[in-house]
Amino acid sequence: MEPNNHTISFYKLQAKKLKRELGIQHTEALDITAKKYGFSNWKHCLRSFDAEPQPSHTIVAHLTFTDWLSKQVNRDSPLGDLARDVKTDSTWPSFDNLENYESYLGSKSAAREAVNALKNAWKSYNANIKRSLQPNKDKIVTKTPTPKNDIRKIVFVKNVIPLHYSKRVPEKFNVGDEAWISNDGRKAIPVVITEVDERHYSFRVERPLKNAGDEYYYRLDEVRSTPELACLNRLA
């Protein structure tokens, strides 16, 4: 048994070399490497790093990645599929970086779709953390009085069958544009775009009046130009 004082990246590199040399499965190479350096198996190796103190440069957040995923289980999307898989995985670890999660999925021989879902989920999670850490002054939106007759109302749409996420194509909006969103596929809520990034639209709610001015963010394909399209592309 060799001294156990290396990084997780070192162990993964050794496993890759062993896989090429012996022509064995990736998971088998990981286990052999872990045992060589004093662990009972690869999962034991991963857990030992999980127990170490978090690096000082790690983003501090109220929600861990796993906690954030647990809130996505009702989504009809690859993110929702990943969240449901994680919920039923009794050995799912807790890391502070994407690389270790990818390594864990590799040890499980996960499909490419699952790995892609993980990468996208990690981006969304960090975008959520960055928003939560923004100073309140950056979130202040100047409200311009709107003539009473111009205030848009909630619209109820009948007989709409929501599209599957794989068939959706995002619409383009700019900051200040009016748009619509729907949570249930029946009720369309008027909103105004306040921020745009590569994966999300942030917006200010106009109705109902008790929530007017509240800000949220949805995926690009969940924000639409008409009430009908909003219900068709409801929150997944």
Explain how this protein is built.
The chain has 236 residues and is an alpha+beta fold. The chain has two domains: 8-133, no CATH class; 148-232, Roll (SH3 type barrels), CATH 2.30.30. The chain contains eight helices and five strands. The chain is elongated. A hairpin with a 3-residue loop joins strand 3 (187-196) and strand 4 (200-205). The N and C termini lie far apart (50 Å). Helix 1 (8-22) packs across helix 2. Residues 64-126 form the YozE SAM-like domain. Pfam families: YozE_SAM_like (PF06855). This is YozE SAM-like fold.
The beta-strand count equals 5
Strand content: 5-15%
Q: How would you state the average pLDDT, rounded?
A: 83
**SSE run:** HHHHHHHEEEEEH
Oligomer: single chain
Biggest β-sheet, characterized?
A: 5 strands, antiparallel
Tally of alpha and pi helices? 8
**What spatial form do the alpha-carbon principal axes imply?**
elongated
Task: Write the SSE topology.
Elements: H1 8-22, H2 26-36, H3 42-50, H4 65-70, H5 78-88, H6 98-107, H7 112-133, E1 155-156, E2 178-182, E3 187-196, E4 200-205, E5 215-219, H8 227-232
Antiparallel strand pairs: 1-3, 2-3, 3-4, 4-5
Protein name: YozE SAM-like fold
Domain YozE SAM-like: 64-126
Pfam families: YozE_SAM_like (PF06855)
